[in-house]
Amino acid sequence: MVLRRPYAFLIKHFRFIHLVITAILVYIAFKYRSIYIYLGKCISDSVNRYDAANYINYWLLFLIVIVIFLFFVVYWLLKYKDKPRYIYVMSIVGYVVLWIVLLATFIYLGSFNTNLIEQKTIRLYRDILFMCNLFQYYVAIVMFIRGLGFDIKKFNFGKDVQELNLSQEDAEEIEVNIGIDTTNIVREIRKQGREFGYFFKEYKIYIIIILTLLIIFLGYKGYGYFIDHFKTYKQNVYVGENKFINITNSYYDIDNDKYVIIKFNTYTNGIKDKLNTGNILLYVDDEKYVANKNVCYKFNSIGNCYKQQYIDNDVSEYILVYKVDEVNVKKTYILYSESYDKTFKIKLDLKNNESD
C-alpha cells in the first residue's frame, strides 16, 4: 500500500490544528470549572450532592485522549523538523495527569448518592481541580497564540509554516506493508521503548518538575487531610471554630438502663447563639447516639442540662446525657461537627457515676 508522508499536511494546517486543540482545551477547562463550582456548592450545602450525576461525563475522558493524541502529533512533527517542543511534552504529561484526576473525580461523584460527604475529602478534590484549571488555562492560551501564528520569542506575527521548512520530501509517497509480522511487531515495540527512553531523557527535567509539583501538592493536601481526619483530642481541650466546647468530665451510669454523661464548658466567638446538640454525637464501639434531653433530669447532681439555652462569649457549663446499649470505657468518644467543614473527635475518659 502506498501512502503520502503526513508532514506536508500537518505543516500546511499547523495553525488550524492549534485552533482545534484550543477549542477542545477551552471546552474541557469549562467542564472542569463547572465541577469545581459544583463541589463548592456541596461544601456550602450538602443537599446539592444529589445533583452529582449531572456532572459525570465520561465523554470528557475521551476528549482528553484526543487532545493528548493531537499534542503527540504536533510533537512528532516538530521533532522531525528539529524544532522546540517542550510545551507539548509538558502538555502531554499534564493532560495524562488531568485524565487520572478527572476519572478519580467521577468515581468520587458517583458515591454521593450512597455516602455522606466528608468535607475534608471534597475540599481536597476541589483544590486539586483548581490547580488543574490553572494549568489548563496556561496551555489553552499558549495553543491559541500558536494558532494565531504569534511568535512569542520575537513578539510579532511570524510565519510558523515557513519556519517549519516545508519541503517536497514531506509529501512524498511511501510504501507501507500492511502484512502482520510478529517479529516486526516485537521490533517496533522495542523501538518505541527506546524512543520513549530518549523522549524521557530529553525532557526529563520538565517531566520531573511537573510530577514533583503534583506530588508536593497532593502530599501537602493529603497530609493535612489525614492529620485532621485521624486526630483525636483529649478531654479538657477546647475544640471548635465559632462555638467552642471543652469536655471537662465524662461519666457512665449503669442502673436499670445504661447512660453516658458528658460535662462541658462552652462559649461562642462573640456571637450569641445556640448549640446544635445533634452535632455532638456519642460513639460507643462505632454505634452512634444522640443526646437524650428527656432523661437529663436524672443527673442534675452532675450539672445543668443543656436544652437550647443561648450561649455567648462568657463560659457556661452544661451536661448532655446519652442513653446507650452498652458501655465500653476504652472505645467511647464524642464527634463534634460544628459545621460541615470541621469535625473534632474527642476521646472520653469515663468515670463511674456514683452520685445517685
Strand neighbour order, sheet with most strands: 3-12-11-7-8
Q: Say how many strands there are.
A: 13
Q: Report the mean per-residue pLDDT as an integer.
A: 77
- The fraction of residues in strands falls at 15-25%
Low-confidence stretches: 1-7, 151-161, 166-176
Biggest β-sheet: count, sense, barrel? 5 strands, mixed
Total DSSP helices: 7
Taken in chain order, the helices and strands follow as EHHHHHHEHEEEEEEEEEEE
Which word captures the global form? Answer: elongated
**Helix/strand structural class:** alpha+beta
Q: Rg from C-alpha positions?
A: 31 Å
Task: Tell me what the structure shows.
This protein is 47% helix and 18% strand. With 356 residues, the chain is an alpha+beta fold. The protein has a 5-stranded mixed beta sheet, with helices on one face. A hairpin with a 7-residue loop joins strand 11 and strand 12 (344-347). Helix 2 (14-44) packs antiparallel against helix 5 (119-148), helix 4 crosses helix 7 (182-230) and helix 5 packs across helix 7 (182-230).
